[in-house]
Model the fold of this input.
Amino acid sequence: MLSLTNLEKEIQRQMEILKTGVAEIVPEIELREKIKNSLENNKPLIVKLGLDPTAPDIHLGHTVPLQKMRQFQDLGHQAVIIIGDFTGRIGDPTGKSETRKPLTEEDIYRNAETYKEQIFKILDPAKTKIEFNASWLSKLNFADVIKLATSCTVARMLERDDFAKRYAEEKPISIHEFFYPLMQGYDSVALNADVELGGTDQKFNLLMGRTLQKDFGQSPQVALTTPILEGLDGVQKMSKSLGNYIGVYETPREMFGKTMSIPDELMIRYYELVTNVPVDEIRQLEQGLANNELHPRDLKMRLGWEIVNIYHSKDEANQAKEEFIRMFQNKEVPDDMPEISIEKLGIATDGKIDIVSLIINACLAPSRGEARRLIEQGGVKINDQKLSDAQAVVLLEIGDIIKVGKRKFVRVI
Done:
């Protein structure tokens, strides 16, 4: 057993790590007390994170609470991932302006398998429990559900921004949507959770867990919220629909290149929220940056390396870094550039093709409109010659290199 002095030092160490990159801890004093009891009784905290498998793949924004969960694991606590196979049938109404369509059971389990593959790129599988909440929620009878509903009033539900806004705008709110936070809260009761993690947009649902645990005679969990990660534009939250994301399934080259495009002022935030770099080392990097002892470019290149290393490997991280240096600092092109034949490009017998069709046929833009936008913004080059006229017709030969944006290359063969 730790001495009183060492106990306090360990509590302080854990609190310092767990508070880094956190939006809010409700209440912080209870987390400190739970850590103390855990150390005194040699009993790990049960730390819960719920995931509704609403999409088959995730981006770095989704990994922020997972990184915090990994910190709990490294401190000796028990990580429990709740796959919302039952709650997913309703769909989390958080932030939604209308009722969500329920997922099919087939969608849920297919997405859940993909989620498990991705979360273990961050979490230690040997120290992680995976639970499906249908195992307890499906066993509740209607009397149980009625009892659960007595724990919350309609007025409290309408305190949620999304519900309040929809109510004020006279948009429909289905009764079953009110049950989502109750079901998520009941997950905490089923686990007797000590801590629940979630984004700031999940605060209402996390606090519902505290409410229900009190009603069931349990010690209420601590709600720990993590920030919403800004995307590559540095302004709006990371989102696939906004195109400002880094996907965890992207290639090392794409992942590294995208990281190099984030604003300098977000570097430390990314280190805190999406890497495994220890907190004390991040503070040193932050100090070095503030004192001009570290160049922002070098710090960002290490950030790119750290991210690629998590989702791929050290060798691929090294290769992505070296390739980036060749491509953008030494103005070279990648060794393993994709190739496409003249026939597949649809080039006429005279070797000519209009520039928009070329970009589309080379799969370098998703639509003709996007291709025109890229051209007009100066994002298209052939053999390092910039093309800005979307009406242009170009003459291509074998060996020519087409470049779109900063990271997309293709060689004509």
Remarks:
- The chain is about 45% helix and 15% strand.
- The longest helix spans residues 175-191.
- The chain has a mean pLDDT of 88.
- The CA atoms of residues 158 and 164 lie 5 Å apart.
